[in-house]
């Protein structure tokens, strides 16, 4: 039996570029869906085919994803920070809904303006680059940024349990900073070496963080399949459909 969703609330996210129906690869959509999962709020979700428009009308009103509608469409939110703020306020009045916000300044700086923010930008530059003369420089920049992320995740600024083991950015369980960082790192690690060749090194801080995140039900239930992730970024890299399909078929869940 399907879980009953919150009346009057709908979330529109990108559908897969592979089959135009499944959940698509989008770090922002993943971020918001993971937040709702962590709060235990079942939201009615629509996977919107933004490529072929097979499941939406020609004049579909929403252009940004994710888009959240409240009160049966009377209110529309497509600013991620505003969506998070709105539902964090809900936690203040309903103690059964966990708070996910982080107040640690080092963590917030790392995620919002530091390497945790810059890493996806470096990844995008590398994936989308089609000029051979700039490829090695972009590889180097991305690897350097990955090392910075790894260094922070292994640093004393990261929360640790009683035995000194690394936890999530927000502590024992994921919070809003993890909703932002986990999808980025997961997509990067799924794609590097498949979409494009990359000299991946052993980065134990990132690998340990990803291992913990991938085991969490809130991440698993909101994560697209690896094949969908690879197919999306193959398109970002300018590959034709045949090559994108071939590479997406290489990955295993």
TrEMBL record:
The reply to whether Nuclease figures as a keyword in the UniProt entry is no
Q: Which InterPro entries does the entry link to?
A: CLIC_N, Glutathione-S-Trfase_C_sf, Thioredoxin-like_sf
Q: Which Gene3D superfamilies match?
A: 1.20.1050.10, Glutaredoxin
Q: Which GO-annotated molecular functions does the record name?
A: chloride channel activity
| Compartments, as annotated in UniProt | Membrane
GO CC term, one of those recorded: membrane
Topology relative to the membrane, per the entry? Single-pass membrane protein
Where the record annotates domain CLIC N-terminal, the positions are 7-88
Please give the start and end residues of each transmembrane region.
Answer: none
Identify the main location. membrane
Q: Which SUPFAM superfamilies match?
A: GST C-terminal domain-like (SSF47616), Thioredoxin-like (SSF52833)
UniProt keyword annotations, A-Z = Membrane, Transmembrane, Transmembrane helix
One of the protein's GO biological processes = chloride transport
Q: Its family? A: Belongs to the chloride channel CLIC family.
* Name assigned to this protein: CLIC N-terminal domain-containing protein
Q: What organism is this sequence from?
A: Nematostella vectensis
Which classification does the entry list for the species? Eukaryota, Metazoa, Cnidaria, Anthozoa, Hexacorallia
